[in-house]
Amino acid sequence: MAQSWRRAWGEVVPFFAFPKEVRRLIYTTNAIEALNSKLRRAVRARGHFPTDEAALKLLFLVLNRTENEWTMPAREWSLTKAQFAILFGERFTRAMV
Asked: Per-residue pLDDT tens for 55-76?
């Protein structure tokens, strides 16, 4: 583990420059990875699809089923939004519209 951190130290250090609230939101991307995993698993189990529409329907069904499992919003999102507004200014406020 330590060797891995040393090799990637140049990419790790900028992460710590962000405020605590932003770092917490960044490392909660595990939820996104879990969703991607469910989508990949569904596609892999099905094999091939006769049309693109068939694949989209399957992904839609997986997303609908998964949405019911989501019970918690992003932690401290209001604090994180405030930090993003400070860090990125107008760029962030335009994106939020």
From this structure: 999 999 999 888 888 776 666 7
